[in-house]
Specification:
Layout (H helix, E strand, L loop, with lengths): L1 E7 L6 H17 L4 E3 L4 E4 L2 H11 L5 E6 L1
Length: 71
C-alpha cells in the first residue's frame, strides 16, 4: 500500500471535523476513479504508486491541508 498524510494548517477544532475533511478528500479521489482507504484522521492509503501520485496532484489544490507522501 502507498500512503499520503494530510497536514492540516490550521488544525481543525475537533477530530471528527478532521476525519470528515479527510473522508471528503477520499470521495473526491473516488469520483475521479482513484480507489483509496482512510486509515486514520489524516492518512489515505492507495493501491498503486501511480494512484498516489495522481492523488497528490489532485489533493494539492486544497486550501484545508497539504498532502505529503509517507514511506
Amino acid at each position: 500500500m502507498y500512503e499520503v498524510k494530510l497536514v492540516y494548517d490550521p488544525e481543525p477544532q475537533t477530530l471528527t471535523l478532521k476525519e470528515s475533511i479527510t473522508y471528503c478528500a477520499t470521495v473526491e479521489l473516488f469520483l475521479r476513479g482513484i480507489y483509496t482507504a482512510q486509515s486514520s484522521a489524516t492518512r489515505i492509503l492507495f493501491e498503486t504508486e501511480r494512484d498516489r501520485t495522481l492523488g497528490l496532484l489532485i489533493l494539492s489544490g486544497s486550501t484545508s491541508f497539504t498532502p505529503v507522501c509517507v514511506n
